[in-house]
Design a protein that fits this description.
This protein has 185 residues and is mainly α. It has one domain (9-181). It has helices at residues 9-23, 61-66, 81-95, 99-102, 118-134, 136-147, 160-181; strands at 38-43, 46-54. Strands 1-2 form a two-stranded antiparallel sheet. Helix 3 (81-95) crosses helix 5 (118-134) and helix 3 runs antiparallel to helix 6. It starts with 8 loop residues before the first helix and ends with a helix. Residues 9-180 form the DUF7580 domain.
Length: 185
């Protein structure tokens, strides 16, 4: 993500997190989504970051079968790809850099290419930095997304109790940060 003003970041984090949780398992959000599916209205004075839109590529089932899509957030160590992608987005929002620019050489293969675990290794390493830069609640929200740390065996957002845990341990924390940032109680 390009540079986004620090006063917009808390609002954007809440908006994106709540939208992702609400749109999961609807036709509007793919099971594995990527940051390039988030768009902002462009005005003459720049993008309107307070109102993101999540796009959906509409295509027939036939074209989906003929064009396999690279799934950067799928690996057995990633317990929930939807929440992992959200965690990556929150990291990028906090650090104002794409994950690819934050990756270390040891998080790549021997030919300096990302491997299936590269995103997880980079994101997992950055959790401590997020605590320092974003604060404890933001850090907790990111940790819950990246590590799918909810004290549950099942990490399925189709389950209502897991959805509630996602709200409580991600969206609610980000909302508290937003209220504190703007001095609201």
């Amino acid at each position: 993500m390009e540079y986004i003003c620090s006063r917009i970041r808390p609002l954007l984090a809440v908006t994106l997190a709540s939208s992702i949780l609400q749109l999961y398992q609807t036709p509007w959000l793919e099971d594995v989504w990527q940051k390039d599916e988030i768009l902002f209205i462009q005005r003459t004075d720049g993008p309107v970051y307070g109102q993101p839109f999540i796009t959906r590529h509409l295509s027939s089932a036939v074209s989906k079968q003929t064009k396999p899509k690279l799934e950067p957030h799928t690996h057995p160590v990633i317990r929930n790809p939807v929440l992992f992608a959200l965690g990556v987005l929150l990291i990028e929002l906090c650090l104002s850099k794409p994950l690819e620019q934050l990756r270390l050489p040891e998080e790549m293969d021997k030919d300096s290419h990302p491997n299936p675990l590269s995103n997880w290794m980079t994101a997992n390493r950055l959790v401590d930095e997020i605590y320092m830069k974003g604060g404890s609640r933001y850090g907790d929200a990111v940790r819950h997304c990246i590590r799918c740390d909810f004290d549950r065996r099942d990490a399925n957002l189709e389950r209502e109790d897991f959805q509630q845990a996602g709200y409580d341990k991600i969206v609610s924390l980000l909302e508290k940060d937003l209220k504190d940032f703007h001095g609201l109680r």
